[in-house]
Design goal:
By secondary structure, the protein is α/β, with parallel strands linked by helices. It has two domains: about 1-25 and about 65-145, no CATH class; about 150-270, 60s Ribosomal Protein L30, Chain: A. The chain is about 40% helix and about 25% strand. The protein has eight helices and ten strands. The chain has helices spanning about 5-20, 25-40, 40-60, 90-100, 145-150, 165-180, 195-205, 220-230, and strands at about 1-5, 70-80, 80-85, 125-135, 140-145, 155-160, 185-195, 245-255, 260-270, 275-280. The chain has a four-stranded mixed β-sheet. The longest helix has 20 residues, at about 40-60. The two termini are about 15 Å apart. The relative contact order is 0.21.
Amino acid sequence: MRTIQTQEIEKVVADLFLQANYNIEPEIEEAVAAAAKSETSEVGRFVLEQLSENYKIAREEKLAICQDTGLAVVFVDIGEDVHIKGNLQKAIDAGIRKAYEEGYLRKSVVKDPLFDRTNTGDNTPAVVYTRFVPGDKVEILASAKGFGCENMSRTKMLIPSDGLEGVIDFILETVKIAGPNTCPPSVVGVGVGGTIDYAAMLSKRALMRPLADEHPDSNYRQLEKDLLEKINELGIGPGGFGGKMTSLGVKIEAYPTHIASIPVCVTMCCHASRHARAVL
């Protein structure tokens, strides 16, 4: 049994959120640069070029990629042969507090959603998802989730007779309704199956997959490709100004579900795809 101290987790979390907010993922930067070359809309092309310049400035000057530095969402995969010594939630929150205070990142969390919307002042607490996996390591996936995109998330309980066509229609409808509000080009995360809450979690986990990552199931792999093509035919374009580059990728995660339902959730991530990961 391997023991990991929570002080190690705190340090890693702090580093991950600084990295995520200052340094765009290389594959996103490359995809946006490539999109600028193929974008047919002049305004859309200008938007993409400005995004590329913004990524460069943020990285070099250690400035936030976006003024909305997000609510911290953390996925922790814990090896079954690992013992974490200390309080995991407290360690994660301490790491986030350190990153947001020392990195001069905007704090966006309020104490209560309804009755006390006072800012907590340190961007905590985080939303933390844990699961146990084989092995003696801990993988931490950090996401600074902006809420322009989050506000456009939608969940629907479809029935089996809606089938694949109903799922596709719902995803496309969600992207249409979102329009420019997700700061496209976006990455579209889809969760299908489980329960209503599990589908929502899956849609966020889907966003953590690299753009180049292909789904291991051939059916879902083809569905991701088909949806990306259909989304980019909507004409929303970069920044919502029109064009063909509405989305950089579609990622789907699925889970078994009840015979009476098809839970579906769509969560989008803007071009400022602020994710980082580390393995302890």
